[in-house]
Amino acid sequence: MRVKRGTSHLKRRKNLLKRTKGFRWGRKKKIKLAKTAVLKAGAHAYRDRRVKKRTARQLWNIKINAGVRQHELTYSKFIKLLHDAKVDLDRKSLAHLAEHEPKTFQEVVELVKK
Q: What does the alpha-carbon distance between residue 105 and residue 109 come to, in Å, rounded to a whole number?
């Protein structure tokens, strides 16, 4: 018996073109260009999900360093003192304290300096 594959072929192309919504020029409507565009977009999305985490951590480090410099310390010395004092605060929360709650951050620094 003969199998006609028009519906599955059309469905596949339709789904591909759905993923190219918002792309420019022929990349949103021409199948050949859309395929490569979607493939590359997926690769960039995968990579940038990791880069996002990396840049967030860099920003936290900068905020912590700025907060610690006011107390005559450097970032690296502060982190070492944190580990020695066995304070289990992550960089995200430390950065938040340094930026939004300087008095609480000062208490943490004084606790660590002892």
A: 6
Element (H, E) at 51: helix 31-69
Query: CB-hemisphere CA count at 13 Å for 58?
Result: 6
The pTM of this model reads 0.78
d(CA 79, CA 63): 13
Amino acid, single-letter form, for residue 54: R
**What CATH architecture applies to the domain 8-113?**
Orthogonal Bundle (1.10)
Per residue of the chain (114 residues), give pLDDT as tens: 899 999 999 999 999 999 999 999 999 999 999 999 999 999 999 999 999 999 999 999 999 999 999 999 999 999 999 999 999 999 999 999 999 999 999 999 999 998
Dig out the tokens for 20 from the structure: 């190219």
- Domain range summary for the chain, segments of one domain joined by +: 8-113
